[in-house]
Q: What sequence folds into this?
């Protein structure tokens, strides 16, 4: 039950932040969503069985399921990498990027899209 | 049956990616490494196809653990076919990137190779969590490729793409957690048919399939694709169009075949999504006015056709879906490569800004016309065979509404390809003004190497139209494996 409430709060906060315009808030939103899924995974392993999974020391019936923990570890690494990339994108967008301006409302959008390409070829 | 070579399809390109990073500016070495490893994967897929055509399944238990504990790679006809098509397209797109000079960016080759490794792995794995990891392996380079040459427009397109795909990945992971919570396993083989008996598993399966539908740009989750793909550089768009959304489609088909065991109860949802996708994509394409944005919307529309085959879930329907998927990926990539060749040479893909290419670029014009008519489904091209088998399969199931929509959308397809034709290839020659403001009527023509990749794919489309039988047989074998996944399940679970 605690896990369910925690996941609910994290998802609510994450979704709220992802829907914001600023990329920094979106980044934090994804951090929260990532945590929500991690808690969900740990909960999927069974909340009642919480003892450390040591062979020969713990009763297998009460040992925590190690597989979701391995999943969570992988997911954390991926989330971390993506967070760093989002922050880099924030930096790259930098001073040019005006968060108030919606790219879809830009009347030059299609013209730019056509003209941008093909003209530049790497650094 | 042992398929110990299967993990090499992932490991090889990853190693080559490392090599290309180390080789740095040594471009010849990079090119040789990238092309030879992709060629090797193509050969591997040919071998796999020959081995699996009789319905047998090759598996590899990674790490040598016993089945049930090990992470399993498995190849059946469907996987082998998809692997082959992707390797071929990667080869062609890398060729285009070399011809158009986009691979001068030191990170282009490594990123493209890592992306292809993720796609190959996603087609071969039989473990859902491993699938998630491999999809991330595929997506992370794609985020970087999209914004590689960071103009402002590309960064904001990249932002949209990133946020949307990240949200889908997170939802997919949540689906996995729910599935594990209900069943205690993420091995697709052990989950066979589980969604049929337990509504809870079906719900968790739906949470898995929905993000994949978003990644495949199925209406109403499609809006990110037409807003992002046209903004990438031409070689990157072609690569994405051939590789990325197909993984979404592959996963939907595989999961529905195994986890849901083709449960007829939910097929109407897929049918509804398929019809909506076909119509909305085609209508959107008619309204666009640059070559690549038309093609991006048209991609959405074609995905609907593949889903229609799945929605029938008969042997004929699945055969049509697999055949359609294979030929449409080739045709669509060829179209993006044509648009790319125009943009690389003339600096714009906007209809009306360039016109009259018909007289100047005879080869490119013929190539474009061939693939465009194939997309619309005119005989004797591959698109005709694909649409005919699909519509026949729908008619046999008395889904007459689907038949009518499929035919009507074909007409819309013809409409928007004619729009590109009249905007770019027909009429008096005129080209955008250069830096000096003078209209460059003496602009350089497209180099043969830039047109060659698209021409190869167009030739393949003609070949698959005139000699469709071998691919139809392979698609039929793949469909048998999907309609009755028992031998796949047996091999994957080691039973």
A:
């Amino acid at each position: 039950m605690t896990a369910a409430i925690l996941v609910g709060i994290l998802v609510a906060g994450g979704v709220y932040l992802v829907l914001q315009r600023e990329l920094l808030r979106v980044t934090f939103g994804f951090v929260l969503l990532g945590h929500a899924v991690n808690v969900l995974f740990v909960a999927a392993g069974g909340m009642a069985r919480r003892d450390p999974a040591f062979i020969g020391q713990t009763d297998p019936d009460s040992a925590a399921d190690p597989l979701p923990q391995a999943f969570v570890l992988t997911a954390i690494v991926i989330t971390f990498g993506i967070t760093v990339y989002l922050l880099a994108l924030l930096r790259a967008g930098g001073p040019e990027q005006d968060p108030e301006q919606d790219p879809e409302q830009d009347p030059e959008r299609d013209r730019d899209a056509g003209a941008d390409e093909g003209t530049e070829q790497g650094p | 049956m042992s398929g110990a070579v299967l993990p090499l399809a992932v490991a090889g390109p990853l190693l080559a990616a490392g090599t290309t990073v180390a080789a740095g500016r040594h471009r010849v070495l990079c090119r040789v490494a990238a092309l030879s490893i992709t060629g090797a994967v193509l050969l591997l897929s040919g071998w796999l196809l020959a081995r699996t055509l009789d319905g047998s399944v090759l598996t590899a238990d990674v790490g040598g653990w016993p089945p049930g504990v090990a992470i399993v790679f498995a190849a059946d006809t469907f996987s082998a076919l998809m692997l082959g098509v992707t390797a071929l397209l990667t080869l062609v797109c890398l060729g285009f990137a070399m011809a158009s000079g986009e691979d001068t960016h030191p990170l282009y080759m490594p990123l493209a190779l890592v992306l292809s490794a993720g796609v190959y792995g996603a087609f071969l794995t039989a473990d859902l969590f491993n699938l998630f990891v491999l999809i991330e392996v595929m997506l992370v380079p794609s985020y970087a490729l999209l914004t590689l040459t960071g103009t402002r427009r590309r960064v904001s397109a990249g932002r949209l793409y990133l946020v949307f795909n990240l949200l889908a990945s997170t939802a997919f992971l949540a689906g996995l957690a729910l599935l594990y919570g209900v069943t205690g396993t993420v091995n697709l083989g052990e989950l066979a048919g589980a969604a049929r008996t337990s509504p809870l598993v079906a719900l968790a399966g739906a949470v898995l399939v929905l993000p994949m539908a978003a990644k495949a740009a199925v209406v109403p989750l499609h809006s990110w694709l037409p807003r992002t793909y046209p903004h990438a550089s031409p070689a990157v768009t072609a690569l994405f169009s051939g590789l990325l959304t197909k993984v979404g489609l592959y996963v939907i088909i595989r999961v529905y075949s195994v986890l849901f065991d083709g449960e007829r109860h939910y097929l109407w949802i897929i049918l509804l999504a398929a019809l909506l996708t076909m119509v909305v994509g085609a209508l959107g394409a008619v309204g666009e006015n640059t070559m690549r944005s038309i093609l991006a919307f048209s991609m959405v529309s074609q995905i609907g056709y593949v889903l229609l085959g799945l929605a029938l879930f008969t042997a004929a329907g699945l055969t049509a879906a697999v055949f359609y998927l294979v030929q449409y990926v080739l045709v669509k990539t060829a179209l993006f490569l044509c648009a790319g060749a125009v943009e690389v040479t003339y600096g714009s893909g906007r209809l009306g800004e360039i016109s009259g290419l018909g007289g100047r670029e005879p080869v490119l014009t013929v190539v474009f016309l061939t693939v465009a008519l194939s997309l619309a489904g005119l005989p004797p091209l591959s698109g005709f065979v694909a649409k005919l088998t699909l519509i026949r399969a729908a008619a046999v199931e008395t889904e007459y509404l689907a038949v009518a929509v499929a035919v009507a959308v074909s007409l819309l397809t013809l409409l928007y390809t004619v729009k590109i034709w009249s905007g770019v290839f027909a009429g008096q020659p005129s080209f955008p003004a250069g830096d000096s403001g003078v209209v460059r009527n003496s602009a350089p023509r497209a180099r043969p190497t830039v047109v060659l990749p698209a021409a190869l794919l167009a030739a393949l489309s003609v070949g698959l139209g005139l000699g469709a039988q071998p691919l139809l047989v392979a698609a039929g074998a793949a469909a048998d494996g999907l309609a009755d996944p028992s031998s796949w399940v047996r091999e994957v679970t080691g039973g």
Remarks:
- Chain A touches chain B through 45 residues (CB under 8 Å).
- Residues 95-123 of chain A have pLDDT under 50 and may be disordered.
- Residues 66-93 of chain A form the longest helix (28 residues).
